[in-house]
Amino acid sequence: MGEIIKVGMADLKVCREPDSLTTLGLGSCVGVALYDPITKISGLAHVMLPSSKEIRNNANIAKFADTGIDETLRLMVEMGAQTKRMVAKIAGGAQMFSFGSKSSDNLNIGLKNVEAVKAKLTELHIPIVAEDTGLNYGRTVILDSNTGEYSIKAVGKPIKVL
Amino acid sequence: MAKIDLDNMESVQFDVLREIGNIGAGNATTALSKLLDARIDMRVPKVNLAGFSEITGIIGDEEEVMVGILLSLEGDVNGMMMFLLDTASAGRLVATLLKQEENIDKDIYDFSEMELSALNEIGNIITGAYLSALSDLTKLTIVSSVPTLQVDMAGAILSIPAIEFSKIGDKVLLIETQFDEESHINGYFLLVPELESYDVILNSLGL
Fold it and tell me: Is A160 a domain residue?
């Protein structure tokens, strides 16, 4: 059993076995887990916003789906992972609050984040092998680099292993 | 007109925002006291300028289950207002209001529709009191949406205001007020105006 490395909001981390990566209480943000099963190198990005191109102040590359995934990938490749072997699992992107018919941009951000993450992964030819996204509840995720298992915990629900 | 700059805030701006928290939450606390017919006091408000990694730390643990009541704000001030309670406090509030025996073993998943609806109404009344005090003080029009309630991890609930601020930078500015310990209610008011609305509020007060 290795160390469990915490990934904060708008943050990203990489590790190799036997360590794990976790991010706690994901709401509308998306936890993008990348895994190379041969080298067992793992990466986890906590994405808050869909695109760095729509925001003026985009210095924090971990915050966005596009730049955050690029950077996670770069760090993993630097450690010896290969992009063509990588698989992705994604979780989060909930709509935490809903105001009935009035759809505010801010409240649908979860869905937009998920769409942006999928578009970016498709562009990079990284297959999404599992996902647990949307709905209206928060999730804690743990990526185990020994197995590539992505565990999802939510309040009042059994642990889901992707 | 002075614009607020999150990387370079002036101390007078902090003072004024703290005073807004004081007046708003003061009125809200009074409303809650009356509603419950119990004495409730609040602590001195804090104006928090926090990085994303620290935002949940203001309240507690990312995974702590809390009741969050959210209203979106429109009019002269855009943004959101949130009332957060830990689940034990939420249970206590509801039991007092509905004149039930308090069940300390009560689990969060046991809240009935009726109890959740009562909590939402408490949220409605006290955030309304907060916002009307703010509106009186600033002479600004603040229109709030119907409140919506969510019971979930603090991190997930707070990601909503955090995302709003993430569009402009890497810090969140919020006015936070907590009840005091003797009130036995662990609750927080968070006023989260959009950045431009901070300017509007400060300008209305002559800054």
Answer: no
Count of domains forming chain A = 1
Just list the catalytic residues of A: 29
The pair of structure tokens assigned to A65 is: 């789906």
Q: Predicted confidence band at A101 (pLDDT cuts at 50, 70, 90)?
A: very low
Helix axes of B113-138 and B11-36: crossing angle, nearest 10 degrees: 130
In this prediction the ipTM stands at 0.87
Using the predicted structure, report yes or no on whether residue B99 has a pLDDT greater than 80: no
Within a domain: A33 = yes
Residues B108 and B170: their CA atoms lie apart, in Å, by: 33
The pLDDT of residue A86 is 96
For position B139, what pLDDT does the model report?
A: 92
CATH of the domain at A43: 3.30.1330.200
Backbone angles phi, psi at A73, to 5 degrees: -60, -45
B110 vs A: CB within 8 A = no
Q: In what order do the strands lie in the sheet with A150-153?
A: A4-6, A20-26, A139-144, A150-153, A160-161
Q: Which residues of A touch B165 (CB under 8 A)?
A: none
Interface test with A, best of B166, B168, B171 (most A CBs within 10 A): B166
Residue B121 at interface with chain A, using a CB cutoff of 8 Å: no
Q: Is residue A159 a part of any domain in this protein?
A: no
The tens digit of pLDDT for each residue in A13-42 reads 999 999 999 999 999 999 999 999 999 999
List CB contacts (< 8 A) between A98 and chain B: 148
Q: What is the C-alpha separation between B17 and B174, in angstroms, rounded?
A: 9
Q: Residue B73: closest CA among chain A residues belongs to which residue?
A: A104
Residue ranges making up the domain that contains A123: 4-152
Q: Which CATH number fits domain B11-204: 3.40.1550.10, 3.30.450.20, 3.10.180.10, 3.10.100.10?
A: 3.40.1550.10
- Which residues in chain B have their CB less than 8 angstroms from residue A109's CB? 163
pTM confidence score: 0.87
Q: How far is A93 from chain B (nearest CA, A)?
A: 10
